[in-house]
Amino acid sequence: MTLQQFLEQEIIPQYESFDAGHRCDHARYVIAESQRLAQYYPQVDKDMLMVAAAYHDVGLCEGRKTHHTASARIMRDDKRLLHWFTAEQIDVMADAAEDHRASSDHEPRTIYGRIIAESDRQIDGDTIIRRTIQFTQAHYPGMTEQEQYQRFLEHMAEKYDEGGYLKLWIPESSNAQRLAEFRQLLHQPQQLRERYLYIYNQIT
């Protein structure tokens, strides 16, 4: 079995049991985007990057709050990876998975962590709105529609607006431009509400 076959058969399918914003398509997006960004950093081992991307959210099986540390631990405990990598390389990949979380209290420790974190951002206005609605409905099922929208606004301010905790790490990424465009929408209340309701009604 090749490394890519191992990831496709044994790791990526785990994402199907996670919430709608973290299914197999999300794992594959992070893998593809990280490989694209790797072209700007020739010192990066693309196989290591692929593994870090594939494992970065597997810790969601233990809950969202500590999923990043769980992902790192799961990777370190997976002895199958020793078929392709040294223990030292696995440590680097595990650190990258642990450092990807947007709300992390420290910068990614390596270029691998910065690339995975940047690739995970997936800054697209409709995707952000949809994933926030899906998360709220899954974790706060008792909220009214208006309460859900208020939580959405608070989350947008806390994470995506100026001064929010989301940080970008790779200048070659297009995330900065997309974030600036999304912030413009956040400051247009009527247009934001209309976009939210359009996506909300698609989901519900």
Describe the structure.
This protein has 204 residues and is mainly alpha-helical. Helix content is 61%, strand content 0%. It has 2 domains: 119 residues, Hypothetical protein af1432 (Orthogonal Bundle), CATH 1.10.3210; 79 residues. Helix 4 runs antiparallel to helix 5, helix 7 crosses helix 8 and helix 7 packs across helix 10. The model has no long low-confidence stretch (mean pLDDT 95).
What secondary-structure arrangement, pairings included, does this model have?
Elements: H1 3-11, H2 24-38, H3 46-55, H4 67-77, H5 87-98, H6 111-121, H7 125-139, H8 145-159, H9 175-186, H10 189-203
Sketch the topology as an H/E string, one letter per element.
Answer: HHHHHHHHHH
The appropriate CATH architecture of the largest domain is: Orthogonal Bundle
Counted beta strands? 0
Helix content: 55-70%
Number of structurally distinct domains: 2
Tell me, briefly, the overall form.
globular
Mind describing the biggest β-sheet?
none
Q: From the alpha-carbon coordinates, what is the Rg to the nearest angstrom?
A: 17 Å
Helix-strand category = mainly alpha
Provide a quick synopsis of the model.
The chain is mainly α and 204 residues long. It has ten helices and no strands. The protein has two domains: 3-121, Hypothetical protein af1432; 125-203.
Fill in the keyword field for this structure:
204 residues, mainly alpha, Hypothetical protein af1432, 2 domains, 0% strand
